[in-house]
Design a protein that fits this description.
This protein has about 625 residues and is α/β, with parallel strands linked by helices. The protein contains 18 helices and 14 strands. Strands 3, 4, 5, 6, 7, 8 and 9 form a 7-stranded mixed sheet that branches. Strands 11-10-12-13-14 form a 5-stranded parallel sheet, sandwiched between helices. Strands 1-2 form a two-stranded antiparallel sheet. Helix 16 (about 555-560) links the parallel strand 12 (about 540-545) and strand 13. Bound molecules: adenosine-5'-diphosphate. Adenosine-5'-diphosphate (ADP) binds next to helix 12 and helix 13.
Length: about 625
C-alpha cells in the first residue's frame, strides 16, 4: 500500500511547503494569481483524496462503500483542476496581449464567456457523478468509462491550450511561450503515462509538478514583483520620452519667434535713432536673450535628468575663453560701479583637452551670477593652475562684493528652481544655473563650493582637471588683451553668393538682415523644391538650409542635392531651431557641413562663415 502512495506522499509534502512559502510572501491581486491560489489549494486536496482513495481501498477492501466515494472525489478534483488550469493559462496569456485592466474588463464584460465556462464545469462535474468505474487492489488499478471520460476532457483541454498558444504567440515573449508549452506538455504527459502504466497512480503527482513549475516560472511573487517593476519602468520611460518630445517641440516653437526678436533687434542700426527708441530696442534684445537663457536652462536640466549630458572633448584654449568672458562681463557691468579684475597664479598650458562649451558655460554661469547679485564694488576672477604630469589642475575663484547669501539659505543654493528671497525679486533668473553648473562639473570630475558673508559678498570656487594638449605656457593669462568683439570687424563678403532656405518668412528676413552686414549676395528660397531649382542654374558658395519645412524637409533636400548626377560640392549648413542634445551630431551625420541653431548667435555664425568660406 505505502509503495503505491510513496510518490503522492512526497508530492503532498512538497506542495505543503510550497503553499507555506507562497502564502507567507506578498500576494498579487491579479486574476491569474487568484486562480493560481485556488489551483494550489486544489492540488493539495487532489493529493489528499488520491492518498485517501488508495488508503481506504487497502484498509476496507473493494466491497466497502467508502473507497469509491474518495475515488469519485479524486476524479471530480481532477476535472476541476483541469478546468482551472485551462482558465489560468488563458488569462496568463491574455495578460501579455493587452494589459491587466483589459483582462478585468474582458472577464467582467464578457459575462457570456464566464457563464459558458461555469456551466461547462458544472455539467462535467454532474456527469462525473454518474459515470461508472471499477478498481482492483494489489496493484491498485482503476478502470472503466470514468477513465475514458477523464482522458477525453484532458485531450480537449490540451487542444484548446495548444491552440491558444499558436493564436497569441506573436504578442508573447519566446521564453514565456516556451514555459507555457512545457507546462501543457507536462499536464498531458501525465495522462499518457497513467494510461501506459495503470498500476502506478501518477496524475496527481504530475499535477503537483505542473503547479510547482508554474510557481517557479510565473507565480513566484518575486518574479511578479520584478515584472511589476519592469512594467513601471517601461511606463516611466515612455512618460519621460513624451516629456522630452514635448520639450523638444516647445523649445523649437519658442526658438523660432525668439530668433526674430533677438535677430531683428540686434540688426537695427541704433546710431541715428532717438535715445529712447534705441533704449527700447536694447531692452527688447535683452528680454529676448533672457528668455533664450531660460529655454536653454530648461533643455539642459532635462538632459541632466535623463543622463544624456555628455562631454565632447577636444583641444581648446583657456586663454580664449577667459578673454571672451572678460569682454562679456565688462559689457554686463558697464552700467554699474563695478570693477572686474582677473588674477592668475601659475602658468597655463596654451591648449588643454576638454569640453570647451561646458567649461565656458560653467564659468559664465558663476560670473553672470556675480554680475547679477552685485550692485557695486569688485568682481574678481582668480585662476590658479597647477601642472601635474600631463594634467593641469585648475581652480577658479569668483569673488564678488554683492548681496551675499544668508547661512540659513546655504542648503537651497544647489536645488532646482530654488531662488533665495533676499531682495532680488527684480533680478531675472530661474534657479537652475547653479544646479546645471554642479552637474556639468560632476560630469567633468570637478567640484564647486562657496563661502559667503551676507550683505558683504560671495566667493564661488570651482575646481577641475584637464589634460594638456600643448605644453607651451601662458605666463600671465590675466594680462591678455580681452578678445575684440568679432562683430565689430565683419569681413567683406561681397564676392560670395549665399543661399538661404527657410519656409518661415520672418526667419528668412532675420538671417538676411544679419548676413547683409557682410555685404554677401543673398538669395532666398522658401522651400526645399525652390532650393533644388535655384541650385540647378546658379552656383552658391554656401547654403543655409532649414530642417523642418513642409513637403520636402531640409534633410530630404540635402539628400536630393547630393544625389545630383552633375555632382554637388557646395557646403550646406543646417539652420534650425532644433537644439536638443545630440542635434548637431545628428545633422552632421546626415551630411551637413555644420550646424547653426536659432536664435542665430552672431559669434557662431561668424565662425561658420569663416570656416566654410576659408577666410583667415
Ligand atoms: P538664478 O537663475 O536664480 O540666478 P542660480 O541657480 O544661478 O539661479 O542661483 C540660485 C540662487 O543662488 C540665486 O537665485 C541667488 O539667490 C543665489 N546666488 C547665486 N549666486 C549668487 C551670488 N554670487 N551672490 C548672491 N547670491 C547668489
Amino acid at each position: 500500500m505505502y509503495d503505491t502512495m510513496k510518490l503522492e506522499i512526497c508530492s503532498l509534502l512538497y506542495i505543503i511547503i510550497l503553499q507555506c512559502i507562497y502564502f507567507v510572501k506578498r500576494k498579487y491581486n491579479f486574476v491569474e494569481s487568484k486562480i493560481y491560489k485556488v489551483l494550489l489549494l486544489l492540488t493539495t486536496f487532489l493529493l489528499v483524496s488520491d492518498i485517501s482513495a488508495i488508503y481506504f481501498s487497502y484498509k476496507y477492501g473493494i466491497d466497502n462503500i467508502i473507497p469509491p466515494i474518495f475515488i469519485r472525489i479524486y476524479f471530480i478534483s481532477l476535472i476541476i483542476w483541469s478546468m482551472l488550469y485551462l482558465a489560468y493559462i488563458l488569462v496568463n496569456k491574455l495578460k501579455d496581449k493587452n494589459n491587466y485592466d483589459s483582462i478585468i474588463s474582458l472577464i467582467k464584460n464578457k459575462k457570456i464567456l464566464t457563464s459558458i465556462y461555469i456551466l461547462t464545469l458544472i455539467t462535467l462535474i454532474i456527469v462525473s457523478l454518474f459515470i461508472p468505474f471499477n478498481y482492483s487492489l494489489s496493484p491498485f488499478v482503476i478502470e472503466g468509462d470514468m477513465l475514458l471520460y477523464i482522458y477525453i476532457i484532458a485531450t480537449i483541454t490540451t487542444m484548446i491550450l495548444l491552440l491558444s498558444l499558436v493564436i497569441n504567440s506573436k504578442h508573447i515573449t519566446i521564453e514565456k511561450n516556451f514555459m507555457v508549452l512545457i507546462s501543457i506538455l507536462l499536464y498531458f504527459a501525465s495522462f499518457i503515462l497513467q494510461a501506459t502504466i495503470p498500476s502506478t497512480p501518477i496524475i496527481s503527482s504530475a499535477f503537483c509538478l505542473v503547479t510547482i513549475f508554474i510557481y517557479f516560472t510565473f507565480e513566484n511573487p518575486d518574479l511578479k514583483y520584478i515584472d511589476e517593476l519592469n512594467d513601471l519602468r517601461n511606463k516611466a520611460e515612455s512618460a519621460n520620452n513624451a516629456k522630452t518630445d514635448f520639450l523638444a517641440s516647445v523649445s523649437h516653437e519658442i526658438r523660432t519667434p525668439l530668433n526674430a526678436i533677438i535677430g531683428l533687434s540686434e540688426s537695427i542700426p541704433t546710431d541715428e535713432l532717438p535715445a529712447s527708441i534705441a533704449e527700447d530696442i536694447k531692452n527688447i534684445n535683452g528680454a529676448g536673450n533672457i528668455l533664450l537663457e531660460i529655454v536653454n536652462n530648461i533643455l539642459d536640466i532635462t538632459k541632466v535628468e535623463e543622463g544624456k549630458m555628455t562631454l565632447n572633448n577636444s583641444p581648446y584654449s583657456l586663454a580664449d575663453i577667459i578673454s571672451e568672458l572678460t569682454s562679456l562681463v565688462n559689457v554686463t557691468i558697464s552700467e554699474k560701479p563695478i570693477k572686474f579684475i582677473v588674477e592668475s597664479k601659475g602658468n597655463i598650458p596654451s591648449k588643454l583637452i576638454g569640453d570647451e562649451v561646458k567649461v565656458h558655460q560653467v564659468l559664465l554661469n558663476i560670473l553672470s551670477n556675480a554680475c547679477k547679485y552685485t550692485k557695486k564694488g569688485t568682481i574678481t576672477l582668480s585662476i590658479d593652475s597647477r601642472i601635474n604630469g600631463n594634467k593641469c589642475n585648475l581652480t577658479f575663484k569668483v569673488i564678488d562684493t554683492g548681496i551675499g547669501i544668508k547661512k540659513s539659505d546655504y542648503d537651497k543654493i544647489f536645488q532646482k528652481f530654488e531662488r533665495l528671497d533676499q531682495g532680488q525679486k527684480n533680478i531675472e533668473g530661474t534657479g537652475l544655473g547653479l544646479v546645471i553648473t554642479k552637474e556639468l562639473l560632476n560630469l567633468m570630475g570637478g567640484k564647486i563650493s562657496f563661502e559667503s558673508v551676507y550683505q558683504q559678498g560671495t566667493t564661488f570656487t570651482i575646481n577641475f582637471e584637464q589634460e594638456i594638449a600643448d605644453r607651451t605656457l601662458i605666463t600671465n593669462i590675466a594680462a591678455l588683451e580681452p578678445k575684440k568683439n568679432i562683430l565689430d570687424e565683419h569681413f567683406d563678403g561681397s564676392q560670395y553668393n549665399i543661399l538661404l532656405v527657410d519656409d518661415n518668412l520672418l526667419n528668412l528676413k532675420v538671417a538676411e538682415k544679419i548676413l547683409k552686414s557682410y555685404n554677401f549676395k543673398i538669395t532666398v528660397a522658401k522651400s526645399g523644391l525652390e532650393c533644388l531649382n535655384l541650385t540647378k542654374n546658379n552656383k552658391y558658395d554656401l547654403i543655409f538650409l532649414d530642417h523642418m519645412m513642409p513637403e520636402m524637409d531640409g534633410i530630404q533636400t540635402l539628400y536630393n542635392l547630393k544625389n545630383r548626377a552633375s555632382g554637388f560640392d557646395t557646403p550646406v549648413v543646417v539652420l534650425t531651431a532644433n537644439a536638443i542634445e545630440g542635434s548637431k551630431e545628428k545633422y552632421l551625420k546626415e551630411g551637413f557641413k555644420d550646424y547653426l541653431s536659432k536664435p542665430i548667435s552672431q559669434k557662431e555664425l561668424d565662425r561658420i562663415l569663416r570656416e566654410q568660406l576659408h577666410i583667415e
